[in-house]
Design goal:
DUF427; 2 domains; DUF427_sf; about 5% helix; mainly beta; about 40% strand; single chain; seven-stranded antiparallel β-sheet
Length: about 280
C-alpha cells in the first residue's frame, strides 16, 4: 500500500523525534560563549513542528537549577503554539537560570543520552560561524520559490484588495502554499502598516499590514534572508483573506487550524512568518 508522505509526516508529530547534525553549535549569553558543542541533536518534542538543540551538559557553561516543568493546558489543536517553550510533552525536568527562568529541559528519554534541550531565548546562536535566528535549521525542510503566471485574486471583507497575473509561489515543507504579489498589484491604500513583526529562521523578519476588521492580514519581507530573496517586498495574505488562484479558493490556514482542508495533526498558533 502506498504511503502518503505528507500524512506520514503529520502522524510523526505525535512522537518524540531526533536527528543528528554534523554542525558545530554555539550559544552566547550577554556576549559570552556559554555553549560550544559538536555533539548536538535536533529534538522535536511531540506536538512540535520545529526542532530545538539538545546538547551534552558538559559542553554548557551555565549554573542551572532543577524544577518541575510547567503543566501543558488542555488544547484541542494537536500542535502546540510555538511561543510556549516551557510547555513540554515528554517526561523530564525543567532547568532554570537565575534571572531568566526556564532556559532548558532535560527529557527522561534515554535515547537523548542525558542531553539538555535549550530554549532559543535568551541566547544568540551560531551554526558553525553563521548566525541563526528563530530556531535551528531543519534538515528536512525545504523552500521552493517559483515565478508564476497564474491569476490570483484576494478579497478581505468582500473587497478586492489584490489581483495579479504575475505572482510568486512559495512552497515550504509542511505549510500551505503562499502566493506573493507585487505591491503594484495590491491595494496598498486599503492597508495600514502594523507594529507586528515575526521571525522565520529561513525567510527573515516579516512586517505586517492590516485591513479594516482584519489585523495582520498580510505580510512581506523588506530585508529577507537567502531563502526568500525572490519575494523581497512582495505581499502575501492569510486567515481573514479569501485567496483565489485561477478562480478556485485556496486554504491559507496553518496546519490543523479550522479551514486547513485536512484532518491531520496541526494547529500551530503562530503567524506565517513565525515558523
Amino acid at each position: 500500500m502506498a504511503v502518503d508522505l505528507e500524512q506520514d509526516w503529520f502522524r510523526g508529530l505525535r512522537e518524540l523525534r531526533i536527528a543528528r547534525t554534523p554542525k558545530r553549535i554555539r550559544a552566547l549569553l550577554d556576549g559570552q560563549t556559554v555553549l560550544d558543542t559538536r555533539d548536538a541533536l535536533l529534538v522535536y518534542e511531540p506536538r512540535r513542528v520545529v526542532p530545538w538543540y539538545a546538547v551534552p551538559p558538559g559542553d554548557l557553561d551555565l549554573q542551572l537549577s532543577e524544577h518541575d516543568p510547567s503543566p501543558v493546558p488542555e488544547l484541542r489543536a494537536p500542535v502546540l503554539p510555538p511561543h510556549h517553550n516551557d510547555w513540554h510533552t515528554v517526561p523530564g525536568h525543567s532547568l532554570h537560570l537565575e534571572g531568566h527562568g526556564e532556559v532548558a529541559f532535560r527529557p527522561d528519554d534515554p535515547d537523548l543520552g542525558g542531553r539538555l534541550v535549550l530554549h532559543w531565548d535568551p541566547f544568540e546562536w551560531l551554526e558553525e560561524d553563521e548566525p541563526v535566528m528563530g530556531h535551528p535549521h531543519d534538515p528536512f525542510k525545504r523552500i521552493d520559490v517559483l515565478r508564476s503566471s497564474r491569476h490570483v485574486r484576494v478579497e478581505v471583507g468582500g473587497t478586492t484588495v489584490a489581483e495579479s497575473s504575475r505572482p510568486t509561489m512559495l512552497i515550504e515543507t509542511g505549510l500551505p502554499v503562499r502566493w506573493y504579489l507585487p505591491q503594484e498589484d495590491v491595494r496598498i491604500d486599503l492597508l495600514t502598516p502594523s507594529e507586528t513583526h515575526t521571525v522565520c529562521a529561513y525567510k527573515g523578519v516579516a512586517s505586517y499590514l492590516s485591513a479594516p476588521g482584519a489585523p495582520d492580514v498580510a505580510w512581506f519581507y523588506p530585508d529577507p534572508l537567502h531563502d526568500a530573496l525572490q519575494v523581497k517586498d512582495l505581499v502575501s495574505f492569510w486567515r481573514a483573506a479569501t485567496v483565489e488562484v485561477d478562480g478556485v479558493a485556496v486554504s491559507t490556514s496553518m496546519p490543523g487550524e479550522p479551514g486547513d482542508g485536512a484532518d491531520r495533526a496541526g494547529g500551530a498558533d503562530g503567524r506565517p512568518g513565525a515558523i
